[in-house]
């Protein structure tokens, strides 16, 4: 391949003229990597791309891997907290009329469990995995808009703290994670609890949106030369589609929570039927976000499955195009199903039937994915390692969740099981089976890349079986007790309904499932400290993240790879083709064209900066203050403006000036 | 793993305008999500308007003149906005500076009229849901107007410093033009929703 | 004697309840709607189970294989991939057929359900409150309009139309052995038709989270033969029984002097509050506080003395009463049959 095939041939006369006129300062050139020996290249790049030392340096980091690691650890901690909530609830429900936890605390517990798992664990952790892996998989040196990405993390962690400090002060929301009005409205939700829900949601979703935009632009504009659309790895496709779903779904929940806070704080009547508002409007807006939310959590997990299966089945994914089209179809269809959360509200029958049909329809692209993965595995006995075991666990559980989802799509059937433990079972099968099992597989799969060490295979197998048995013991009986008439969100139940034995069994399963995470945490720590060194590519997988060292250097790739196949490392066994000509004294990366990934621009990536943290503090303080007075928006505007100007104002670095 | 040099990119430019630049795509992404917010707020308005047969809930009609003046100002501002875009593409410092000053002023002008638009709605946000919705729609757009005008002014100042002499900065001007188009275009349906749709019934 | 009777009643209730585990179950249908739905649940479950087993079998195939993978992952067998494509396409086709079938099935089931109450003669308005149910029997004759709480008597074998609404937050009316659930939404009115095939007591409870005491918002549908139902309605229309014993008389006077009267109504007395359950015939009901306690003298006393202990967060306030006063009020209320 000659460089002329890949480089854009567009000429740039206006810029040249402008340079001649003096309207653009002439480009200062620096040393290039062309022909540079490996040792000096690493030295140069390490100096250019490093995160500065010290606390301020650490807080200024814009390295996508550093940010992603923080995200992953924070999200895991929130998972543990949310899991403890669940265990507390299961102890209370282990017998009828237990007095361990009263309704006031119990209602905060299940609300915090839902809010934490959805907004502080599931979405952040799939996005964080993407922040780590997408730039590596597309062969670039940092995520697009790295400062925005850092800002996203600070917003996320402070939003999570906001929620949990409120919980510690018994000020946590107690209206359920979807906080229906009027229960959460000004009349029936006294105190600040529902305000905490509303502002925490709006605020943390800012972070989700920021990451989504950064991911989209990274995938569209920063792919390595030659990685045309048909050579994008399936995981990257999944994150791209997910990010688009985030961009169009998250505004709905922000609008919902903003309307709610307006009703509560300044006396608007948007959801008040007595003054021309409507309570169901809240549900429409919320579920317009809420259903895509499920796919925001699930689609990245399908990307993980699509990465793990080829590595262990020793062949590229069967039906690559079909898998990509299914992802896109699921992304679109996820916006057409929201009403199936509202069948029990008494909507017109014909309209409801339409949503039955659309909810059934989404099973088809999901089915295509399942069948393609199975077909990929049919080439011979796969290499069975822990990541693949968790993928098997995913099949075992997610298919049950998908099938009960088909049951819920049926309007009449839904009227019996809606808001019962059957639904609780269903969405845990979908979310844990469909997303957490792949995530655990992904943890074993990419842990060596992130830390440079392997996790224990033996503990991994124990972990897998404990998780599978614990999960099914905890959640399968919930289907039954739901059909026996047990509604969700009850802090206790009467003895005479005959639910006590099954609930005790469920609680025991929940404890077992929780213990599997304790084992997992031990395996993580043990692996990070004592694991055997992994090498660059321990699984002999085919995508670009395995082309660099484990853990990757701050600049990801000493030379940007040139991609010739969807599994580039399998296609180029002898030597990986790479690009040269980039500066080594500035944070240069390659901007390429959207469809063909022709290299187009050598752009400078942003340098570390403390301003994103300061901006997050200013925005966060404004949100926090706003649950007490609307004037917070006015007072907060000035510090927010100052921090944003500080963020974007050029500092005179080579990155800024050219 | 072993590497072999395949292409040399030493001659690539260091910045690009419009869709060639990642910033343009980032701006597009934010427009998409903010546009979604506008669409949902407008959808909520229409939902309530169709739910209640006597929509406007016996509130007086708003005085449309301040809103109409804002609309005219915004539409007129598109002309210098696009001239500015052309100069930014040519990286012509003089005209760009003039254009940025003009656009800062043309951003402030509708903001001043907007101040009179809220009382001209003839209803408060806490009177009924109709009042709430039109205040929300107007507030949502005003927030965008304020942030974009602020952004324009900061960039104008920047263009008068030494930092302005950079291809990237001209790219920023182009993106600012792009975003202003968005602010103007989102206003049109909101203007119609607030002032003219309730009159149809 | 009275105490003995109430203990006997409580014991009988307890035995009755013990014997009826599953009386709030969607799988134990007692009416046409629930029967149709139970059939639908079993059909879907069976079909889903078959699909799941097939998928698991497909997953087990590679695990049975002896042959290891080819060493070079990019060398693929084109003819084998073509075979797989055919299998995958067939599976997708079958999925589509099954889904279309299930969609049609649920559409027709919905039509069947809609037809159940088309000739309902009796209309009952059920209003959700935090955390109890207001039940109003509509009638063309205003004097026959009846208001009660939490327990809904219906004639067995006849369709009954329920009009569902709420004055505070959203609740959901669900008696699984008779029908699916439907929400009670402030500002809206939903219509749910129910029918019990045989006489019996069918338990239900609120299915939409509605605040602190969502868990203790039970309701009972009590289906009776028509004659018994009519007699019940006539009894309930009567004003409250006048107290006979001295203690009960004192209790009746206390009730009117204390805050009780602000919220509760007792027909035939000046007590006319409407924000809490109508107590005119409270002792004729089987439970207290929306299914929280069985009706007994002891439970009445416990509920009045410590409502926040029985049902934390409930809107029933603690009223400061001496032991004698409490006994008097309980004596009065337990005579309101």
DSSP strand tally of chain B: 1
Largest sheet of chain C: 5 strands, mixed
From the 3D coordinates, which CATH architecture of chain B would you assign?
A: Up-down Bundle
Strand portion of chain C, in percent?
15-25%
Search tags:
heterotrimer, A: 658 residues, mainly alpha, Cytochrome C Oxidase, Chain A, 2 domains, two-stranded antiparallel ribbon, 22 helices, disordered N terminus, C: 337 residues, alpha+beta, Immunoglobulin-like, 3 domains, five-stranded mixed sheet, three-stranded mixed sheet, 9 helices, 12 strands, 42% helix
Give the topology, please.
The complex is a heterotrimer of chains A (658), B (201) and C (337).
Chain A (H helix, E strand, L loop, with lengths): L2 H4 L6 H9 L16 H12 L4 H7 L3 H30 L9 H35 L8 H23 L24 H29 L12 H32 L13 H35 L6 H14 L15 H13 L1 H15 L8 H24 L1 H7 L3 H31 L5 H27 L16 H31 L37 H4 L4 E5 L7 E5 L6 E6 L6 H16 L5 H17 L5 H4 L1
Antiparallel strand pairs in A: 2-3
Helix pairs in contact in A: 5-6, 5-7, 5-18, 6-7, 6-8, 6-10, 7-8, 7-20, 8-9, 8-20, 9-10, 9-11, 10-13, 10-16, 11-13, 14-16, 14-17, 16-17, 17-18, 20-21
Chain B lengths: L2 E6 L13 H30 L13 H26 L2 H28 L8 H31 L7 H34 L1
Chain C lengths: L1 H18 L12 H33 L13 H39 L5 E8 L2 E6 L8 E4 L1 E5 L4 E7 L4 E3 L8 E3 L5 E5 L5 E6 L12 E7 L1 H12 L8 H12 L2 H4 L23 E2 L4 E2 L2 H9 L1 H4 L12 H12 L3
Parallel strand pairs in C: 1-5, 4-10
Antiparallel strand pairs in C: 1-2, 2-3, 5-8, 6-7, 9-10, 11-12
Task: Report what the structure shows.
The complex is a heterotrimer of chains A (658), B (201) and C (337). Chain A has 658 residues and is an all-alpha fold. Chain A contains 22 helices and 3 strands. In chain A, strand 2 and strand 3 (599-604) form a beta hairpin. Chain A is globular. Chain B has 201 residues and is mainly alpha-helical. The N and C termini of chain B lie far apart (71 Å). Chain B is built from 5 helices and 1 strand, in the order βααααα. Chain B has one domain (21-45, 60-200): Cytochrome c oxidase, subunit III, four-helix bundle (Four Helix Bundle (Hemerythrin (Met), subunit A), Up-down Bundle). Chain C has helices spanning 2-19, 32-64, 78-116, 226-237, 246-257, 260-263, 297-305, 307-310, 323-334, and strands at residues 122-129, 132-137, 146-149, 151-155, 160-166, 171-173, 182-184, 190-194, 200-205, 218-224, 287-288, 293-294. In chain C, helix 2 (32-64) runs antiparallel to helix 3 and helix 5 (246-257) packs across helix 9. By secondary structure, chain C is α+β, with helices and mostly antiparallel strands. Residues 11-21 of chain C have low confidence and may be disordered. In chain C, strands 3-2-1-5-8 form a 5-stranded mixed β-sheet. Chain C starts with a helix and ends with a helix. Chains A and B meet through helix 1, helix 2, helix 8, helix 9 and helix 10 of A and strand 1, helix 1, helix 4 and helix 5 of B.
